[in-house]
Structure formats: structure tokens, C-alpha cells
Specification:
Chain lengths: ~240, ~240
């Protein structure tokens, strides 16, 4: 399926060779704009779901990493090295194509994407969160210990809130990277922004206009996310 | 109430505490003084196992807490600790700092914990700051909140680790006054301090630690006027 699509890509490129030069005509894609815009919801929900699961799993991994229980630490380190040491697109292809082969379950593209991106983002954010936890003053831990607070409660109430606050900018960057990388799911056929752009392109044999339009939407989304994050960070800082 | 037997603590090759054997009786106020690097803070931190002794025993109410078999959280609930750098929880209000232990460790009902918290804040003269965040307080105020937070667990023992060393000179008195009031209530106190006047006035006993050894253990009037050890004479010459 993937190769089939790539073939059609190449044919279209051959066709394009006949008509080079820059004559943009955005009016041609106007009827397709609603179709493309629907991709925003797909891309956003994909990003948000992956980021949330990835963040939760990343937090668990980060706690494994600072734990005294060696096997947990080994597992988390090994896990991270796997997901950081192989290309995201390879991970996505493996999960999308290998799952049906191994389990007989025909995994939908969106689901395969969410799983891949959550697992991948957890590997990256676990390092960030670990750094955030270690950066919390050790006096905070001691103060909690002398009150007789249990370890899980101390983590949850005292250490993690301060760690997350410190690493908020890094986590936002992670989500922005995730938003942009989410365009990779178009390769397995999920109807996200990029996929919709290429569909319009191949239907109408015009490439620049729909893809430029898609790029613009990504840009606006990333900039809005950055802006929201800055406001949020400023407000958090006020409570200090 | 607290007894140590041949307490030793080493950090790598550095022997910080060498065979400290002493006893602090119920209701006693003991000041631990001596030159920097003499092991005062380490000694105090061994009493609630914030530092684990390398050798020797620590008994709290007759129970040896160094065996690894006791639930140190339970022991710590009965031993409040006040730190040089306050270690207030910056993301919680003053009242939330004080009620955190009673709510989360002792599981007191919220109304009861808040009443207790407000009473204690009134005692340290900070009732009007209940809803402020720690960052809005001066150093002296922070330390008084930290004392209230430790007292909220209604401990029988209070440990003070250089409580006024990080304060501006004009704020030292307000903290010492709170501690004087506390000493009069009959609670057992162990105080690492550089405030000689305070130690002389409030303490029942002086422990003088020098080079990791307990060089002198005497009532304040004897220690300050007629110290036995040469080390103590030299130290007093410098600080008085």
C-alpha cells in the first residue's frame, strides 16, 4: 500500500516535469480547503493523545531511572536507547505493518501512529523529566522525609510539581516536535493534514499550492502553541 | 529519649563523626556547637537517619533505629526538623505547608488540620500570612513557618540545623524568640547553632563537637566560663 502510493507520487512528479515555472494559482484548491482543514482536527487530536500518553509513560520511566531497583533502571535505560537509536519512521512502519502479521489485528493507521508516537515521545521526555526531578533542591525531599511522608506521596505532591514547572518549556518543545513529526502518519495512510494535502495535490495535479497551504497551517499551529506556552509559563512564574 | 552509642559517620575516606556516645533526655534543650566541619550537622542528621551512620547505634525512645528493621517514617513523625535553608514547599501556601503533614501523614480531617495550622501560625506570629506563598516572606518569616510546619506533626523532639545561619542579622532575633518560647513548653530540642548567647541562655547542656569528636559535654555555665578541653577554650576565645 505504501509502495503503491510512492509509485503514484513518482508518476505525478514525471508529469510535473512538463510544466515547470512558478505560476501559483490558489483558486484551484479553494473547493478542497474544507477537506484539508478537517485534517487539523486529526493532526491535533493525534498530537494531544500521543503527547499525553507519552508524558504519563515518560514520567513512569523517569521514576524507574532514578529508582534504586536496578532492573527497573536497566529496563528504562534500554527502552530509551531503543527509541532514540532508531528512526521514528522505522518504528511507525514496524508497528503498523508488523502488528497485523504478528497478532492478526489490522491496526488502524491512527492507532498505530498514536502508539508509536506515545512510546517514542515517552523515551525522550523521560530524560527531560528525570533531569527536572534531579534539579529539585534536595532540601525539598528532606523536608518531606522528616514529616514522615511516603515516597510516592512525596513524588506526587512535592517533587513532580516542581520538576514539571522547571521543565515546562522543554516539554512544550517536545510537543511541538511531536506536532510536526505527526505528519509522518500520512505515510501509513492516516488522514492528517499532510495526507489531505497530498490527496488534493494528486487529484488536481497541482503540488505547490496545497502543500504550501498545509505548511502554513502547521506554522500557525506551532506558533499558537508556542504563544500559549509562553503565557502559561509567565503565569506559573508569578506564583513563585 | 535520644541515645547514641559509638556513632561514626564517614564520607568516603573522610571520617566526619568518631565514636559519639551521648544521651539527650526528655525535655532537655541541647545546643550543639563547635567549629565548621566539626560534624555538628552530620551528628544531628544521623539522629533521624537523614544520614545513615557508618557504625554505631542511635536509640530513639529505647528503639535502635539503625537496624534497618524499624519504620523510620514513624520515628520521623515524632521528630520535627528545621533546616538552615527552610526548605518550605514553594508551590504551596504557608497554611498548606503547615497542614501538609497533618493532612497527608496523620490523615487529620481538613477542618481540624487547618485549625491546628492557624493556631501554630498565630503562635509564631504569622497568622496573617496563611494564604501567602513562601516567596513573599522574608527569611525570618520563612523560618518561623518552617518551625510551625514541623510542630504541626506534634512531635516530642525537635531538631534544628543552624536555623538562623542563613538569615539577615535583623531577622535572627524573631526566630530565636520563637525557639525560646518553644523551649519553655518542655519539648525536647537539639539545636546546632552558632548563636552563643542563645545557647548559653536557653540550653540545659552544650555538646561541643570538634574534629568529629565530642570534645565536651557540659552545662552552659560551666562550658562558657570554665571549659575543660583546650579546644573549647580556643574556640570560645574566637567566638566570644
Amino acid at each position: 500500500m505504501m509502495f503503491h502510493r510512492l509509485d503514484s507520487f513518482n508518476l505525478n512528479q514525471l508529469y510535473l516535469l512538463g510544466q515547470t515555472g512558478l505560476n501559483l494559482d490558489f483558486s484551484k484548491i479553494v473547493p478542497s480547503i474544507p477537506f484539508i482543514l478537517q485534517g487539523i482536527a486529526v493532526t491535533l487530536s493525534f498530537t494531544i493523545v500521543s503527547a499525553l500518553i507519552g508524558f504519563a509513560w515518560g514520567t513512569v520511566l523517569s521514576i524507574f531511572k532514578i529508582s534504586n531497583i536496578k532492573p527497573l533502571k536497566w529496563f528504562a535505560d534500554f527502552y530509551t536507547s531503543i527509541f532514540r537509536g532508531t528512526p521514528l519512521l522505522v518504528q511507525l512502519s514496524l508497528i503498523y505493518f508488523a502488528t497485523p502479521q504478528l497478532t492478526g489485528y489490522a491496526i488502524p493507521a491512527f492507532q498505530a501512529g498514536v502508539i508509536t508516537f506515545a512510546l517514542n515521545s515517552a523515551a525522550y521526555s523521560s530524560e527531560t523529566i528525570r533531569g527536572g526531578i534531579l534539579a529539585v533542591d534536595k532540601g525539598q525531599r528532606e523536608a518531606a522525609m522528616t514529616l514522615g511522608v511516603t515516597y510516592p506521596l512525596m513524588m506526587w505532591d512535592i517533587i513532580l510539581p516542581q520538576a514539571f514547572k522547571n521543565i515546562l518549556p522543554a516539554l512544550v518543545n517536545e510537543s511541538i516536535a511531536l506536532l510536526k513529526d505527526s505528519s509522518l502518519v500520512s505515510t501509513v495512510g492516516a488522514l492528517d493534514l499532510l495526507r489531505r494535502g497530498t490527496i488534493v495535490a494528486s487529484e488536481k495535479f497541482i503540488y505547490f499550492e496545497p502543500l504550501l497551504f498545509v505548511a502554513l497551517i502547521y506554522y500557525v499551529m506551532v506558533m499558537s502553541l508556542t504563544w500559549v506556552a509562553q503565557r502559561f509559563e509567565r503565569r506559573m512564574r508569578k506564583s513563585d | 529519649m535520644i541515645r547514641t552509642e559509638f556513632l561514626c559517620k564517614s564520607f568516603g575516606k573522610l571520617d566526619v563523626l568518631k565514636d559519639i556516645s551521648t544521651e539527650i533526655k526528655k525535655g532537655e534543650v541541647v545546643a550543639i556547637i563547635g567549629p565548621s566541619g566539626g560534624g555538628k550537622s552530620t551528628f544531628l542528621r544521623c539522629l533521624n537517619l537523614l544520614e545513615v551512620p557508618t557504625r554505631g547505634r542511635v536509640y530513639i525512645d529505647g528503639v535502635d533505629i539503625t537496624t534497618g528493621k524499624v519504620d523510620i517514617k514513624k520515628i520521623r513523625q515524632n521528630m520535627g526538623m528545621v533546616f538552615q535553608h527552610f526548605n518550605l514547599f514553594p508551590h504551596k501556601t504557608v497554611l498548606e505547608n503547615v497542614t501538609y503533614g497533618p493532612l497527608k501523614v496523620k490523615h487529620l480531617p481538613k477542618a481540624e488540620a487547618e485549625k491546628l495550622g492557624l493556631d501554630l501560625l498565630a503562635k509564631v506570629g504569622l497568622a496573617e500570612k496563611a494564604n501567602a506563598y513562601p516567596s513573599r516572606l522574608s527569611g525570618g518569616q520563612k523560618q518561623r513557618v518552617a518551625i510551625a510546619r514541623a510542630l504541626a506533626m506534634q512531635p516530642e523532639i525537635m531538631l534544628f540545623d543552624e536555623p538562623t545561619s542563613a538569615l539577615d542579622p535583623e531577622m535572627v532575633k524573631e526566630v530565636l524568640d520563637v525557639m525560646k518560647d518553644l523551649a519553655r513548653t518542655g519539648i525536647t530540642m537539639a539545636i546546632v547553632t552558632h548563636e552563643m548567647g542563645f545557647a548559653r541562655e536557653v540550653a540545659n547542656r552544650i555538646l561541643f563537637l570538634e574534629g568529629g569528636r565530642l570534645a565536651e559535654d557540659a552545662p552552659p555555665d560551666i562550658f562558657f566560663t570554665n571549659p575543660r578541653s583546650e579546644r573549647a577554650c580556643q574556640f570560645l576565645e574566637k567566638v566570644l
